[in-house]
Amino acid sequence: METSFVSRGFVSFCVIVFLSHFFLVGAIPIPATYDGFTNPPRPNHEPVLLEGFIDPLCIDCKTAWPTIAKVVAAYGPRLSFVVHPFPVPFHHNAFFAARALHIAASLNSSSVFPLLELIFKNQASFLNDATNEESPASVVSRFVDLAVEIGLPSDKFARGYTQSNTDQATRISFKYGCARYVTSTPSFLVNGVPVTADETWTFEEWEELLDPLTYSVSVETTSESHLSLF
Ligand SMILES: *[C@@H]1O[C@H](CO)[C@@H](O)[C@H](O)[C@H]1NC(C)=O
After folding, report:
1. How many separate domains does the chain show?
2. InterPro entries attached here (predicted)?
3. Which atom of ligand 1 is nearest to the CA of 152?
């Protein structure tokens, strides 16, 4: 009796391990380039496409960022990095924060990552508990203050919060993440395929994932990175 219970338990265990492996590792292998044939044809050495779904007010995203920045810097032109702002609804100020990135992009495209990093630095002051007693207008004005800190014009940035195109762009970012089944942040796609990478991943784990996909020819790094390591 007891033996059969144990063996049935063991079988269930194996099934669970198999299934979780299947779901965690992803259903398909990652192609060396984003799938498909293009017109015009792609260059021989195409960068690997890394997409990150990032909520500026997510603590795990802040934790993940220094490693991500290190990976992006290390791979240089072999990696193309896209941040999709993904404001999760249970962070009350996340939509304001994601909208700040779109406003920054409309004023100076090079200011997006510096602003994201500045929001990370000040993240604690924008979290739910810290802002329960604060008006939305006051929270927005503090995002404007951060934008000014990195050299963006105060009046234009504040006006961005009243313009419908930045509202629309932020909604589209959110919907894009929903359409890609993003349910938590940070989430990552490599060449369009979901990967299990998260804030616990070390630089070495990223290397294990990316090295087989990126070309090994040494390339002089010419692209300027706007990401810092804090
Ligand atoms: C755009 O932002 C970057 C990063 O903050 C800054 O170095 C650059 O001077 C800005 N460009 C303009 C035209 O303001």
Report:
1. 1
2. Thioredoxin-like_fold, Thioredoxin-like_sf
3. 14
